[in-house]
Amino acid sequence: IVPAYEVLLDGYLEDPYKHLRKQTGFNPTLPLTWQPNKHISLYGTRVKGFRFGGANTCIPFACQITPYPLVYRSDKLWNNEIGLRTEWFDRTLRADVTAFRIDWTDMQLQQTYRGAFGYRANIGSARSSGYEFSTQMFLPWGFNLLANAAWIDARTTEPYTLSTGSIAAGGADPDEVPAGTRLPSAPEFSSSMALGWVHNLGDWLLGANFSWTRATSTKAQLGETLEIDGYNSFSGGLKLAAPHLPLAPSIDLNAINLTDEFVIQGRTRDDIVKVARPPRTITLGLTLNFGSPQD
């Protein structure tokens, strides 16, 4: 009788319940900051990261012939970042800009086999570099605005051979992914904006918010032509709250995906499974606090 979840390591059938892996990591952080005045600061950091490896679940009743790796190694990275932080107009406007580069070694990446079996594999080295911008503005009449934008170029830096398990090919079909291939689920450009408003009505606070998020399309799987759609998403909400009254009542009305846009945000190889973003959703909630009254 062969247990259904045995693990095959380096050609040897190991005890399925007593496999031990031990690894250590050293993660130094090297920060540097220069502040020429109280409104401007420049900073740079170099940080090392370490992520522990693990085991994949094999295909049921076929562990010894599972075509993808049954174990994956720890991966490591160095994150290099420089940035400028500024404050303007008596701290009512804040603006930051950052440039970064992340170098991965033995990068772990989630994959799928034949569109049904998920596994994690080490794809070798990769690099992610880009720029980020963020700003916050405190406006008159209780308004505040947050805005962010990012441009990211995330690619492999060495070739990698994977098993697509294409149904059309009738089984595992190893493909070589060349160096310079864009990493999946990493849109080249993304941005967001959120506008908030709060007004005092005596014992009650009235608030409103509106947000917009945008991202360009990206690949669904490493080395695949299938894409995850780019999208524009709009959300909004209203809030009426009395934090100092008994039970601190709060009424919330929220809506997501206001335009009811249909967007594919995930898909497996061969398009067996597609995952869409939630449709337009409107919720109404009442919150009461039965603890001690707030001061």
Quick synopsis:
The chain has 295 residues and is an all-beta fold. It has strands at 8-9, 12-13, 29-37, 40-51, 54-55, 71-72, 75-88, 93-105, 108-113, 117-122, 126-138, 143-156, 160-163, 174-177, 189-201, 204-215, 218-219, 227-228, 231-241, 250-256, 264-267, 274-276, 281-287. Strand 17 and strand 18 (227-228) form a beta hairpin.
Helices and strands in order, then pairings?
Layout: E1 8-9, E2 12-13, E3 29-37, E4 40-51, E5 54-55, E6 71-72, E7 75-88, E8 93-105, E9 108-113, E10 117-122, E11 126-138, E12 143-156, E13 160-163, E14 174-177, E15 189-201, E16 204-215, E17 218-219, E18 227-228, E19 231-241, E20 250-256, E21 264-267, E22 274-276, E23 281-287
Antiparallel strand pairs: 1-2, 3-4, 4-7, 5-6, 7-8, 8-11, 9-10, 11-12, 12-15, 13-14, 15-16, 16-19, 17-18, 19-20, 20-23, 21-22
